[in-house]
Amino acid sequence: MTTITVQLEEAKAQSLRKKAKRYGLNQEEFLTASIEDLIGQPDNDFDEAARRVLSKNKELYRRLA
């Protein structure tokens, strides 16, 4: 298994915690389920979602590089 570290703004991290709690999961479980769901989508849907995420967070990824 691979470990991936992600940095989030505090507001987004708090939102993540709230959503995870709503589903009775901890943050890691919620993220894992979300990623598995995203990866499990048909390719066209995944490609479009990935493009939206990459476009939306382009500046963040540039700063993290």
Write the layout of secondary structure elements.
Blueprint (H helix, E strand, L loop, with lengths): L9 H13 L4 H14 L2 H14 L1 H7 L1
Helix pairs in contact: 1-2
Total number of distinct structural domains = 1
Mean pLDDT: 86
Helix-strand category: mainly alpha
- Counting DSSP E segments of at least 2 residues, the number of strands comes to 0
Question: Between the first and last Cα atoms, what is the distance in angstroms?
Answer: 23 Å
Percent strand? under 5%
Q: Are there runs of 5+ residues with pLDDT below 50, and where? A: none
Radius of gyration: 13 Å
Helices and strands, in order, run as: HHHH
Q: Please bin the fraction of helical residues.
A: over 70%
Shape: globular
What is the oligomer described by this structure? single chain
Question: Biggest β-sheet, characterized?
Answer: none
Helix count, per DSSP? 4
